[in-house]
């Protein structure tokens, strides 16, 4: 795939997928096809994204690639972990011959995969990402293929960085919207208690808090129950989707 066309396709993937996992899954499919064209062999690809204080995102367009990548977590060894440590591409020419990470390579070889290439994709203060390629052919990735996959990673890094930032912004917006919804429900319930008990706002809120603490449930849930009893139906707020 020409470099210009590759850059355009990466941008298209970002525009077409507003969920991070979906974008990364499509990226893995694109990368697998790219590597297959470079090597002339069938290739699978997985993408791993690790962010500070967030769960690791591990995706692949093929379930087998997902399994092969995930083996490293259970065994705590493998080329991806090495690539993250060294910040360099790590090649396993033949999983039946390479002496490194014996447990991982034995497990991969037992599933019929002979070559593995792990390429750093992105690394900044908060995010580390890698591409991992798998082939059933030994010596599938020569020097030219390794260089091509590294070049792909360089081009994809900027787009992946944008996708991660977009997802973070969306998360903040979701949290803010939820907080606004919760505050509205609590305010409405407080108003109901003020009217029914002829008490002040602070006294009504204190009553809500006491019930919340006694039952060990969130304040919002207590407020929603009061609104349901008052209206006979779940509350709708100005911030409902």
Overview of this structure, please?
Residues 233-241 have low confidence and may be disordered. The protein is of the alpha+beta class. The protein is built from 8 helices and 5 strands. The longest helix is centred in the last third of the chain and has 55 residues, at 143-197. Strands 2-1-5-4-3 form a 5-stranded antiparallel β-sheet, with helices on both faces. A hairpin with a 3-residue loop joins strand 4 and strand 5. Helix content is 61%, strand content 14%.
Order of helices and strands: HHEEHHEHEEHHH
Helical content, roughly?
55-70%
Would you identify the regions where 5 or more consecutive residues have pLDDT less than 50? 233-241
Strand order of the largest sheet: 2-1-5-4-3
Distance between the termini: 42 Å
Q: Report on the biggest sheet.
A: 5 strands, antiparallel
Short description:
This protein is α+β, with helices and mostly antiparallel strands and 241 residues long. It has helices at residues 3-16, 20-39, 63-75, 79-86, 102-110, 143-197, 201-215, 219-231, and strands spanning 43-51, 57-60, 90-92, 115-123, 127-135.
What key phrases describe this protein's structure?
five-stranded antiparallel β-sheet, disordered C terminus, alpha+beta, 241 residues
Give the helix/strand layout:
Blueprint: H1 3-16, H2 20-39, E1 43-51, E2 57-60, H3 63-75, H4 79-86, E3 90-92, H5 102-110, E4 115-123, E5 127-135, H6 143-197, H7 201-215, H8 219-231
Antiparallel strand pairs: 1-2, 1-5, 3-4, 4-5
């Amino acid at each position: 795939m020409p470099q210009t066309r590759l850059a355009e396709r990466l941008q298209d993937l970002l525009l077409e997928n507003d969920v991070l996992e979906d974008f990364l899954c499509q990226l893995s499919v694109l990368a697998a096809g790219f590597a297959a064209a470079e090597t002339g062999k069938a290739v699978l690809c997985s993408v791993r994204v690790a962010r500070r204080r967030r769960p690791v995102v591990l995706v692949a367009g093929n379930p087998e690639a997902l399994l092969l990548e995930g083996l490293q977590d259970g065994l705590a060894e493998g080329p991806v972990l090495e690539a993250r440590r060294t910040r360099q591409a790590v090649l396993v020419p033949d999983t039946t011959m390479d002496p490194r990470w014996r447990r991982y390579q034995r497990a991969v070889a037992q599933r019929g995969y002979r070559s593995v290439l792990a390429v750093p994709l992105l690394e900044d203060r908060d995010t580390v990402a890698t591409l991992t390629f798998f082939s059933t052919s030994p010596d599938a990735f020569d020097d030219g293929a390794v260089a091509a996959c590294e070049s792909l990673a360089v081009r994809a890094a900027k787009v992946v960085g944008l996708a991660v930032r977009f997802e973070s912004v969306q998360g903040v917006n979701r949290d803010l919207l939820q907080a606004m919804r919760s505050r509205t429900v609590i305010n409405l319930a407080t108003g109901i208690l003020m009217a029914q008990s002829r008490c002040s706002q602070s006294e009504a809120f204190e009553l809500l808090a006491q019930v919340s603490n006694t039952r060990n449930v969130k304040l919002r849930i207590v407020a929603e129950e009061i609104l349901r009893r008052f209206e006979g139906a779940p509350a709708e707020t100005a911030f409902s989707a």
